[in-house]
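#lab-general

N.A. 3:47 PM
ok so I finally got the sequence cleaned up, no stray characters, all 279 residues accounted for. can someone with queue access submit it? mine expired

B.Y. 3:52 PM
send it over

N.A. 3:53 PM
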Amino acid sequence: MPELPEVETTRRGISPHILNKTVQAVDVRQRKLRWPIPDDLEFQLVGRDLIGVRRRAKYLLLEFEHGTLMIHLGMSGSLRVVQDNSEVGKHDHVDFVFADHASGEETESTILRYNDPRKFGAVLWIEDLSTSKHLAHLGPEPLVNEFNGLHMYKTSRTRSVAVKQFIMDNKVVVGVGNIYANEALFKAGINPTVTVSKLGKVRLQRLAECIKAVLAQAIEQGGTTLKDFVGGDGKPGYFQQELMVYGRAGLACYKCGSCLEEIKMQGRTTVYCSKCQKS
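B.Y. 4:20 PM
back already:
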């Protein structure tokens, strides 16, 4: 599943190609995604200028003066910029065609293509983001100052859940998916199974710093390619080469040489070093 670094990589990749351009056409080939694509999407977008490209959690927000196009990549979705003559694939469900502002001259168009093999993503039109149920109750972004050890300490005192489950809760902090939770906990030297309320301010501050560092590095590397993720330019992410524990169960820990262990937590694969990550 594309996680926050992959979504941010996509945002950065597509923005230069579509920002401040006009939607020339919208070609919807498949409306049945996780939630149906609105019937009036073409009407809402054609002829309108894109004025902003933002991200909130794992949602891409394409902003227009009268509303926002909200896109979620789901389990296997991608957004990429393609050429006019690019062949349409089986899972290419939506094309957004952009052109420079009308000036009386014919201009070359840019196609933003949404692909989703599992059809578990979403393409929605939201007139007022403040009323969106999808963004309600979300915690802070992990790379902002508001997210720190003190925030985690205050929100964890009455929680009896494992620390890994805690940092993957979008109400606590958004965008810390399974891969990056594994990596951040290893970097912080914290066992993923320890109850979060047993951790003090110092260790939680260390964990917050490690979450920021891991996510920032992943964004710098263009995300992680484990199966089929590609960024907006069609290129894969390279953070997989930097993974310390995820996907390495049974191999030697890079720090101490011990065998990395694997367990399941809420159905998610969790890999850690019992020697380096203390309870």
